[in-house]
Amino acid sequence: MKDTIRQLIQQALTRLTDDGVLPAGLTPAIQVENSKDKSHGDFASNIAMMLAKPAGLKPRELAEKLIAALPPSASISKVEIAGPGFLNFFQNSDALAQRLQRALADERLGVRKHGDLQRVVVDLSSPNLAKEMHVGHLRSTIIGDAVARVLEFLGDTVIRQNHVGDWGTQFGMLLAHLEENPASAESELADLEQFYRAAKKRFDDSEAFADRARELVVKLQAGDAECLRLWQRFNEVSLSHCQEVYERLGVRLSADDIRGESAYNDELPGVVQALRDKGLLTESDGAQCVFLDEFKNAEGNPLPVIVQKAGGGYLYATTDLAAMRYRSKVLEADRVLYFVDQRQALHFQMAFAVARRAGFVHEGTDLEHMGFGTMNGADGRPFKTRDGGTVKLIDLLDEAEQRAYALVKGKNPELPEDELRSIARAVGIGAVKYADLSKHRTSDYSFNFELMLSFEGNTAPYLLYAYTRVASVFRKLGKGFAEIDGNLALEAEQEQALAARLAQFGEVLGNVAEKGLPHLLCAYLYDLAGLFSSFYENCPILAADTPARQQSRLLLAALTGRTLRQGLELLGLETLERM
User: Fold this and answer.
1) Does residue 428 sit within a domain?
2) What's the pLDDT score for residue 127?
3) Which GO terms fall under biological process for this protein (predicted)?
4) What is the pTM of this model?
């Protein structure tokens, strides 16, 4: 609807420009917002106040001329002027009802992407295979997954890329430990953290072990067959740990999506040579660097993008540049989204600039760093165990399910054990994910089990329960959402408010896809659940006074249920029919 109103306003502006009321050449950004007070309309725009000065008119005078110039639209019943010159637009209830009726008949709820479909590469998760996944990997994994799901739902072709850390000097240390005690080391691999600590201790305590580790790094990078075999075995075990976490989280990542640092190893000399051929390389203290004037330090000196160390080794920047070239030239991406910690913002700004300067990406390829804040403990510091260690992600999920099980069993002790476990899984995992996704991506947030497992407020349990409330209506009726017919009529205020919000689902998904902000969808679903609660309390459904009104309200409830279910699925949450 906002797009429709923007188009109407643009046509009115064109008409007023042609008539000489507005000067030529104005290209204002037309803002249309949801009205908080529905008695003053459904949408509002401040366009008259923005353009009053260049038009030489008072805002209300220009507002009157804009209303007169607006073309008629079946979607709008009337337009009024409010305050100093706001334009308030009232939706046509009959047109809104017809739109929702069409959405009910569509498996995609009437949602389509505005604009051309794209090939989008989503870089997400990217754990380091030297250790098990920890809480620091949660945000990249689930935020990236949610945005990828939304992009796919809107029709884009999404290519997931799990850029795992599977190459580097630490692997020499791990290979030496695996080589030294193959029998015991194989069993130790069941606990990667313990394996890593044992290898690190040997590296610190034994000069001979450290020398052997360094030798193995050289041999590994030179392609030694035995080193590659051991390295491959280590990666297989590490990736199986990762896949277990992905399955627990309900994240759409598989072995086919993995393209780690090692995949670009053979291309790194070519990256450096291509930069040299472009005249972009400068040697600094023996290292090969790219200096760009737009990136300077506090003293005003250009910052380097180091692509090759003095000893010949390569860095993250080199691998990232190779990945950018691959994603643009081979995967033919129109857009590449990097879900990586916000603290890497400068790294990506510089790498993107170098990639463009070197011609590694097509001119039309969008490179976007979707940075995120940190998950903190109650003390506001990065989340740690009580002894200060890293929290394994799998342990966090175990605890979430255990807490959810105790909560659900306390509320419904009569439920069968298998159903209790199923509900606890959905609620526990959903609570962890939703608590993260509902926060603005760039914000830090404090992890709190009590808050995220609450049935009140903007939480997963609240939304999961809201969905079961809709489902219970149809369970009593003995029918599914798709088994209701009849015509939708929006009469009561609560019906109209719920319907108006349902009609905005596609717009919200478009914003999530454009900005990479899943919290916008969370806020929408929370708002929708509240509007349904008001509708449910004020507009009897099964006890409606006429069959036609009952069918209409059932249709509205069915669309609400389907929208909640689809929205939660796009966030990666499992819905329940009862709790």
Assistant:
1) no
2) 93
3) arginyl-tRNA aminoacylation
4) 0.91
